[in-house]
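STRUCTURE:
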């Protein structure tokens, strides 16, 4: 009976993923034509990156009273595994509730993502479909700040290495401006305090946390409005950075 249930769940999820599939192309004003199956990101000769996307789970986005389907970018597809990153910044949270030396393994943001966020955004059946991922927490590549112990998470944040992985569609140089890393804040994230650019060039973009440590153990790295990778990072108790979750489905 268990095997039949798992097979049925897998088929239903596969159907949902195909039916809700679309594409994101940077610089494109209208959605691209729907693809027939999930594909890895592609970058053309002009450096324009295209990601497939799916809708999975529901979270507050337009306001704090109504949940809406979450749009995810497909960073990679490997057999029956899809690595997903939220298309927009979904919330605003402290990396850690108090100012202290901390790692991803011990921070309060990790606890929130795998607790309150997981239970708010996904049904019990959807949670079963989200894989437990062994998350490798590397040291900061520029300062050598210790990344701490590896963790097992259902939901987590990207690292510096992942946010500059060309296979995922990102610019391979972390410390540079790049449209491939920019993310807009949802209205709900802004309502929760996420700092949001008001400049003409970057209007609506947010600054989002990465899980990698910054230039010290009380700092966490991130990505700014322009897609520039902030390797030094910000104070872990800074309250206006946004949360852009990632997971394996």
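SEQUENCE:
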């Amino acid at each position: 009976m268990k095997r039949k249930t798992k097979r049925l769940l897998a088929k239903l999820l596969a159907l949902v993923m195909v039916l809700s599939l679309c594409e994101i192309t940077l610089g494109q004003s209208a959605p691209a034509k729907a693809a027939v199956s999930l594909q890895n990101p592609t970058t053309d000769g002009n450096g324009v990156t295209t990601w497939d996307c799916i809708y999975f789970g529901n979270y507050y986005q337009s306001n704090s009273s109504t949940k809406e389907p979450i749009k995810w970018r497909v960073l990679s597809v490997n057999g029956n595994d899809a690595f997903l990153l939220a298309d927009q910044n979904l919330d605003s949270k402290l990396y850690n509730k108090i100012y202290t030396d901390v790692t991803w393994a011990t921070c309060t943001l990790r606890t929130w993502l795998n607790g309150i966020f997981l239970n708010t955004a996904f049904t019990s059946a959807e949670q079963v479909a989200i894989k437990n991922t062994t998350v490798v927490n590397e040291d900061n590549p520029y300062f050598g700040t210790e990344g701490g112990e590896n963790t097992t998470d259902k939901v987590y944040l990207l690292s510096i290495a992942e946010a500059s992985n060309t296979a995922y569609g990102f610019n391979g140089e972390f410390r540079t401006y790049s449209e491939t890393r920019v993310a807009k804040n949802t209205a709900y994230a802004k309502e929760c305090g996420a700092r949001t650019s008001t400049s003409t060039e970057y209007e609506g973009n947010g600054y989002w946390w990465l899980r990698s440590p910054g230039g010290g153990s009380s700092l966490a790295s991130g990505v700014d409005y322009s897609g520039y990778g902030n390797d030094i990072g910000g104070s872990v108790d800074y309250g206006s950075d946004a949360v852009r979750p990632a997971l394996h489905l």
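REMARK: Residues 1-9, 15-20, 27-36 have pLDDT under 50 and may be disordered.
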